[in-house]
Amino acid sequence: MQAQETLSSSNRGQAKIWSTAAYLLLSFPSGILYFVVLVIFLGLSVGLLIVWIGIPMLILGLYLSWQFAIFERYLAMHWLNCYISPLALSRQPRQNWLQYLRAHLTNKMTWKTLAFLLLKFPLGILSFVFAIQVPILMLVLALITFILGFVCTPILYLILVARNAPLVIRWPGRRPIYLNGMKDLIRYVFTGFGLVLLPRYILLGMAWIWQQLGRALLGMNNQDLRVAQAEEQVRREQAKAERAELSRQQLIVNVSHELRTPVASIRAHLEVLLKACAHDDGLVLQPQELSNYLGIAHRETVRLSSLVEDLLSLSRTEADKLRLNMASVPPGEVIEEVYQALLPLARKERMITLVHSLPERLPRVQADHQRLTQVLMNLVRNAITYTPNGGIISISTRQEHSDYLVISVADTGMGIPADQLAQIFERFYRTDASRSRSSGGFGLGLSIVKDLVDAMGGKITVESQEGEGSCFHIHLRLAQAITN
User: Fold this and answer.
1) Helix intervals (H) in 190-330
2) pLDDT tens for residues 310-351?
3) Where does the chain cross the membrane (predicted)?
């Protein structure tokens, strides 16, 4: 094992040498390219600034220099194996050409990256020369040390025998070299006591210089980074506040629109009842007509009550005040409760067959019993709404892998168009608005279902084919997987 780790470390060191040499060799042509491009675009733009073409050339030059800096930062981080702080924390919002020019001219990083790109030309020449000369220098040193070793080995061996003790050679700033016998003597003498590795240290020294330049000129310093992080946090909070305000405005508009229909219906039917009670115009309602009017008013008040409950659930979720009593819940009990509660509704009102199939031993899930019941109630009610008379709705379960239980609610209803599947969990979204209003839907049920499932640590998915039906899958963590 130790031999493998040593070999792996040696391979990494060799790869670092090769990547460093490649970076130094590339510094020369890249430095020429940067110098030529910057001189052409930035130099000419300054000279032509009084003409309209000068400003576009300046913008193009700044843009190219920024892209060159991004490329150089990538090379330095991956080829020189050093970390460099980012040039910027986030992408700038869309700007016109004047805003882009002002932002870059006032940005400290623009001038630092320009300095790095201009230094790339002279230092690139020096790096290229060193990278080319290193193999030659290594061969020359190897030949010199071989000759010196051939001449000096017998003399040093005689000294070693005469001393009858290890020969110690001390270099300033390095650990002493101990020569205990002929084996050590040959190994150190024929490597020039480390002089053969001198070109390698020169190569790493040049890489160290480029690392320091990259850290200083291709990334923000610590103070600028902290300031940028604070500004980024402020921007995120402002964007969050703007989204919340826009969501609030849309919510008010949508709720006002949804309230108008049931309120108008209740008002109209109550006015008819009041006129019938007054007997001023001779209007007399039969018991059947009276029952119809009262039934319609009752359904509309139920719709209003449902909307209020949905809005309360929505507000709790948005305010992060949704309290969950997470526990080990037997899903079979929840499914049976929902089945017994909605079976009469499915049979009497829509003549729909509601079935459920559960295995004998069903694992417990980590969830909130009340909220899981609410989720299944919403899904089954939604299925009843969109399933024609005589259809079938089924509730089933299956275990997914070893950590999740999937509860599925499938129907033989109208289905959901493929282009609308990604939008059905949005608030107030309805695939068929006219049908939803007539059946009591507000477009909040699926949104609340998704919020509740997410809050319980699960996820909800949907499969649907238009004209054939839909199937919603609730994925919940097993209680046993949580404890393990």
Assistant:
1) 198-217, 222-278, 287-318
2) 666 666 665 555 677 889 999 999 999 989 888 887 887 678
3) 21-43, 49-71, 114-132, 138-164, 185-210
Dihedral pair phi/psi, residue 120, rounded to 5° = -65, -30
Spatial CA neighbour of 17 closest among 145, 202, 191:
202
* Residue-range definition of the domain harbouring residue 414: 326-483
How many other C-beta atoms lie within 10 A of the C-beta of residue 32? 14
Compute φ and ψ for 31, nearest 5 degrees.
-60, -40
pTM: 0.47
d(C-alpha 416, C-alpha 432), whole Å = 10
| 194 and 286 housed in the same domain | no
List of the chain residues with pLDDT < 50:
1-10, 433-442, 482-484
**Residue 348 lies inside a defined structural domain of this protein:** yes
Cα separation, 162 vs 377, whole angstroms: 98
The 10s digit of each residue's pLDDT in 63-111 is 888 889 999 999 888 888 888 888 877 666 666 767 777 777 788 888 8
Tokens of 2: 């130790």
CA 119 to mean position of chain CA atoms: 36
Residues 6+ positions from 307 with CB-CB distance below 8 Å: 255, 258, 259, 442, 444
Counting Cα atoms < 13 Å in the Cβ hemisphere of 228 gives: 18
478 located within any domain: yes
Count of structural domains, the chain? 3
Residue 228 lies in a domain: no
The reply to whether 294 and 412 lie within a common domain is: no
* Amino acid of residue 186: I
How do beta strands 353-357 and 392-400 pair?
parallel
Widest distance between CA atoms in the chain: 140
With respect to residue 211, please indicate whether it lies within any of the assigned structural domains. yes
User: Beta-strand (E) ranges in 324-435?
Assistant: 326-329, 353-357, 365-368, 392-400, 404-411
Render 168-214 in DSSP notation, one character per residue. EE--TTS--EEE-SHHHHHHHHTTGGGGGGHHHHHHHHHHHHHHHHH
Q: Are residues 171 and 154 in the same domain?
A: yes
